[in-house]
Design brief:
Elements: H1 2-24, H2 30-52, H3 60-88, H4 90-97, H5 100-111, H6 118-135, H7 149-172, H8 176-198, H9 208-234, H10 237-244, H11 247-259, H12 267-284
């Protein structure tokens, strides 16, 4: 049960980071926000790790694996997600992102040899269908090309594969705090490089209030990453990954409470929520 609990807590913290980021968007450039939030989260984890990670855990092979996971996601995953949203919009991108658990469990079954039961498969499918319903609630009308979906597919692939790589790293160094720290640091480096390249397209701007919201978003994300590593340290990827994908449900619930930007519960939101809850229950009640 600890694995399932920490996976759901990770989803809740990720959803909280989305809420903070959404409140900050009105006063800043999105790329500047990504850079600040990722950097703030990495600094927090580094500070805690320096105090709590024993020196005998600093093994090169494990650290390199954790760094590879960070480059994949949130590093490359976030970069391609940023491009995908700018090209095809949030709704279409989110529909593809929702398939991430399916990719992850397939790779975990093949690479790590984890056991897939019918109950886990059923729960995963229900969560994917629920997230697709939640993601498609808001329609967007913008010109886009079919090949632009490749960026969303690449983002999904990097996010999915990164979870398996994290589990691989924990097999070498069973230290969730070290894994989360190295993961966040490598992601921050990659996002920083991307931001420096994109900076030539215009000045990155941000208000002071937006900056604080992004710092809060980064702290929430850092805690979410730590909880995710704890859950992977206690359980299999095929169990943890689908539960990590419940983020949209928590995000909608928090939006109702703090943003007040959802006017009513539509049948799509209701159905999506029910499917996500049923899928989560099927996995956690094994």
């Amino acid at each position: 049960m600890p694995a399932e609990l920490f996976a759901l807590l990770s989803s809740l913290c990720y959803a909280s980071s989305y809420i903070f980021a959404k409140k900050a968007l009105k006063g800043s450039d999105p790329l500047a926000g990504v850079l600040l939030s990722v950097g703030a989260g990495a600094l927090l984890l580094v500070g805690v790790a320096l105090l709590m990670v024993p020196s005998e855990h600093l093994l090169l092979v494990g650290i390199l694996i954790f760094a590879l996971a960070g480059f994949c996601a949130p590093g490359l995953g976030r970069v391609f997600s940023f491009i995908a949203i700018s090209r095809v919009g949030v709704s279409r991108s989110s529909l593809i992102y929702a398939t991430e658990p399916l990719l992850t469990v397939v790779v975990a079954r093949w690479f790590l040899g984890e056991v897939l039961t019918l109950q886990i498969i059923l729960g995963t499918v229900l969560i994917i269908l629920g997230v697709m319903n939640l993601s498609q609630e808001k329609r967007e009308h913008r010109p886009w090309r079919l090949q632009d979906l490749l960026y969303a597919i690449l983002a999904t692939a990097f996010y999915g594969i990164s979870t398996v790589i994290r589990k691989w790293g924990l097999g070498e160094i069973p230290d969730p705090l070290l894994g989360a720290t190295v993961n966040s640091l490598s992601a921050a480096v990659l996002v920083g490089i991307f931001a420096s390249v994109r900076r030539g397209e215009g000045r990155l701007t941000m208000s002071r209030l937006a900056g604080w919201y992004y710092v809060a978003s980064g702290v929430s994300s850092a805690v979410a990453i730590l909880f995710m590593f704890v859950s992977l340290n206690h359980g299999d990827v095929v169990v943890v990954s689908p539960l990590l994908s419940t983020r949209p449900l928590f995000a909608i619930l928090l939006s109702f409470l703090f943003l007040r930007d959802v006017e009513r519960v539509t049948w799509r939101i209701f159905l999506g929520g029910v499917l996500v809850v049923l899928g989560s229950a099927a996995i956690t009640a094994r």
